[in-house]
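Revision sheet: structure tokens.
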Amino acid sequence: MKKFILLFATAFIIFAAQAQTQRTVQGIVRNDLKIAKSAAKAAETDKTFSMKNIKFWVYDGIEEADSLNCNQAALVISWHDGSKTNPDHLVWGYRWPKGEERCGLDMVEAVAKTDKRLLLLVQYTGSMGYTINGIGYEKRSSSQVQIAFDLEGAKKAGNTYPENAQKIADNAIVESQKTGLLIHPFGSD
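Predicted:
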């Protein structure tokens, strides 16, 4: 009987410890989230991949020769379009000077400006800063991606715009085809 109680108590402690496992989302502890088996499997890492495998590097504020004395991160975008002709995952390396802070948006913007195949749509959304509204990738060049602003559709949705809104949007689109970065011209203001 003592063995059974000890076994039961041990199993209960292990179960309780697992139930209290902390999960973080963007650095915030979220104990309310349940992790499905598929999510746990997705969290497994590829043990064969390392930063040395990255072929496309973006240098922000440093020269390539200084790349050993810097911070570095990797941007991985997974595309799930069902196509087997395009890679499912694309990886870019990002390097910046030690001692300087960068955020994820800095990295994504720098990559989009450097890799002309990547197109990034961002919009100022108020006190929280910028939001990534879309990411596109074209094998040849982001200038090949067809982008349009449907002013009439946006007005039907109840939004208001200045009189020259279509021209403002068209100018932003033309600029994005040069830079790979489309900054939505109509932010929270």
